[in-house]
Amino acid sequence: ESRALAARLLDALRDAERALADAESRLGELDAVAGDGDHGIGMRRGVRAALTAAEDAADAGAGAQTLARLAAAGWAREAGGTSGALWGAMLGAAAARLDDEAGADPGALDAAVAAAADALGRIGGARPGDKTMLDAVVPFAEAFAAATGTPRGRWNAAADAARDAAAATSDLVARRGRSRTHGERSVGTPDPGAVSFALVVATLAPHLPG
Ligand code: ADP
Ligand code: MG
Ligand code: MG
């Protein structure tokens, strides 16, 4: 059961890696408007390290929790930058809700999503409206909790909410992270971390049971 879930996670990471490779230059351009332009590079480096760690774990016969935990650690270690540390923390918090023996129980996915959003707020310290990835992550977690239906249907609804929320960060003035020093310059451009979060969750939906 847990091995089947581990295989699913590995496939999901492969899709995320492809999506972030395709988006690398666009994410860099968004980050260059008010930040330092490295968001595409950092996300790509992070997801590749996560994928490599997950492949090694799967080869070694790891269960879902170990695979996800090692992927999270790989992301945090290799990505560099603020977003890499925060992605590692989110994935690590989600991984802690998985199991190495049983498959995912019905509540595990809900717990994992809520834990990831909590970890981001706690570790990053951003508030809603600061123009960070939190402005996509919180609407995602709220929409997922509120949605009914299959896991995939609920995830799709949440991914739509994240996409709309990421687009809406365009109107905000950055108050956190590197781009706060050029906060006014960021108006008219969405937050790169919010955009990449929305992209990643959209690619994961087909991997959920539906
Ligand atoms: P860096 O800013 O170190 O170059 P990246 O460019 O990879 O890192 O990531 C920038 C993104 O990180 C921002 O667009 C924002 O979404 C996110 N971010 C920065 N600081 C925080 C924070 N305190 N809480 C949540 N997200 C943050
Ligand atoms: Mg940057
Ligand atoms: Mg940087």
From TrEMBL:
<feature type="domain" description="DhaL">
    <location>
        <begin position="7"/>
        <end position="206"/>
    </location>
</feature>
<feature type="region of interest" description="Disordered">
    <location>
        <begin position="170"/>
        <end position="193"/>
    </location>
</feature>
<protein>
    <submittedName>
        <fullName>Dihydroxyacetone kinase</fullName>
    </submittedName>
</protein>
<feature type="coiled-coil region">
    <location>
        <begin position="6"/>
        <end position="33"/>
    </location>
</feature>
